[in-house]
Amino acid sequence: MMNDATLRKIDLNLLLTFSVLMQERNVSRAAERLLLGQPGLSAALRRLREALDDELFVRVGRGLQPTPRALSIAPAIEDALSCIERAIRPQAEFDPASWQGEFRIGMCDNLESAFFGPLAARLLELSPGARLIGIASDKRDAARRLDEGVFDFSVSVHDEPASWHIRAPLFNQTSICIYDQAQLRLKAPLRIEDFANAAHVTVSFEGNASTTIDIALGRTGHSRRVVATVPRFSALPTALRAMPAIAVVPESIGRCMAQLHGLTICEPPLSLPTDPVTMLYRRVDQADGRALWFRRLFLDVAAEALQASGCRVSVSRAAA
Q1: Which key words tag this protein in UniProt (predicted)?
Q2: In the prediction, which pLDDT does 223 show?
């Protein structure tokens, strides 16, 4: 535990220096953001290292790599800085009815199909001067684009977040089978033999045919035949209407497809892993009135959309 002498050596400017270095990982960019020259930043970093008795950041190429000690204390420091910011920033109550501007959300296409339409409709009702912008996004670039200000938050299956981001759970996404019964004459409940013997269509942005489904199917001693792979879920209904084939998709989009295109859905005949869908947003936006209102609006719309489609999952309110 730190003694009083150590704590007195650490002031708010040092905490800000640490936070910016964690985000930028580059001395020049960090100094520019802090309005410091590089000698001033180096002096501040030296004081931090002395106070905490750790290197905190080591050079790797042209950048900086945080030490395990830096990574362990980063979330607490970000929380402390956020608390200070909320305490000193005057909070005007957000009024969606009079506000004019953009709300920007990043989603992959299967979640767009389930939520974007209802979200746009609700926003038009509650904030008629606003505009909703949907941005194509996935977990590989969500954090970077969030930092660049491309969207207010991302809804996807996200990786472990940085200390200056918050990843809030939404719901666990299960999978269902979907096909055109006029093309593929199968009746529920599916036998695993029928599932394995049917032609399969998969969805992969990168064109990969093999998925966790093949791993799960292999454990039962079966394999499947993938006859086509499409890059987006929007292409799947027409493919299934054109040939005797089956697909395994997230339940949220599968039920939407079934309603819109007259397709049949049923439970897969084997146990498949679920995907944790989360909301990723910046820690500094945690208490911002506009950002908080938009996150709460999405949670309400998502919960209603899932319930209306027949999905059996509930939406967590952690992001609110």
Answers
A1: Activator, DNA-binding, Nodulation, Transcription, Transcription regulation
A2: 94
pLDDT score, position 150: 93
Q: 275-307 burial string, b = 16+ CB within 10 Å, else e?
A: eebbbbbbbbbbebebbbbbbebbbbbbbebbe
Q: How far apart are CA 2 and CA 232, in angstroms?
A: 53
Taking 70 as the pLDDT cut, the residues of the chain under it are 1-9, 90-92, 207, 209
Encode pLDDT of 17-52 as tens digits.
889 898 888 888 888 888 888 888 888 889 989 888
Q: Which tokens go with 60?
A: 């790797």
Q: Which amino acid is at 277?
A: V
User: What's the confidence (pLDDT) of residue 1?
Assistant: 45
Let me know: does 34 contact 20? Beta carbons within 8 Å: yes
Give 279's contacts (C-beta < 8 A, 6+ positions apart). 153, 154, 155, 167, 168, 170, 295, 298, 319
Judge whether 139 and 166 are in contact, CB under 8 Å: no
Which residues are bridge partners to 279 per DSSP? 155, 168
Ordered strands of the 130-136 beta sheet = 130-136, 101-107, 153-156, 275-282, 165-173
Per-residue pLDDT, 203: 92
Residue with tokens 């960090």: 30
